[in-house]
Design brief:
This protein is 26% helix and 27% strand. It has 154 residues and is α+β, with helices and mostly antiparallel strands. The protein has one domain: 2-Layer Sandwich (Tetrahydropterin Synthase, Chain A). It has a five-stranded mixed beta sheet. β4 (127-135) and β5 form a beta hairpin. The longest helix has 16 residues, at 75-90. The chain is elongated.
């Protein structure tokens, strides 16, 4: 069986580059709209009130139809700008506090949040896919809504 963090994510573009970032963070999955029993049914052991942590991996995949100066995006963008944007919001935090009380830090929501943090800093020619690995058995992919970035931010 292949580990999830070794799988490739397909993109629509001819060229793509991927960079992995690792971070540790804690969370509790709890919706105030649900009862305790409903939260347990939806979120399982992640709904425990004391919370728990994960060693996450976020894979940022930037694509492009054609190359600009023989690269998809500069390595500086991946290694410095993307790293700073993600580390400042994710690393060594309680994700419930980081993103506010209305944010439920599921893998799906965290992948989208990372996408929304990074997308405004990329040229429009580039696509962006974010893949968040929560455990060796659980990964979440967010490809965004095309080039139509909604104004909602996280």
């Amino acid at each position: 069986m292949t580990r999830l963090d070794e799988d490739e994510v397909e993109t629509e573009h001819m060229y793509s580059i991927a960079k992995r970032f690792r971070f540790s963070a804690a969370h509790v999955l709890h919706s105030p709209a649900l009862s305790g029993a409903q939260n347990a049914a939806v979120y399982g052991k992640c709904a425990g009130p004391s919370g728990h942590g994960h060693d996450y991996t976020i894979e940022v995949i930037v694509g492009r139809q054609s190359l600009d100066n023989d690269v998809v995006i500069t390595r500086r963008w991946l290694e410095v700008e993307a790293a700073e944007a993600l580390a400042g919001r994710f690393a060594f935090t309680n994700l419930n506090e980081t993103f506010g009380r209305d944010f439920i830090p599921t893998g799906e929501n965290l992948a989208e949040a990372a996408w929304r943090l990074l997308r405004p800093h990329l040229p429009s020619e580039n696509s962006l896919t974010v893949r968040l690995v929560e455990t060796p058995k659980n990964a979440f992919v967010y490809r965004g809504d095309g080039e139509q970035l909604r104004t909602q931010t996280v």
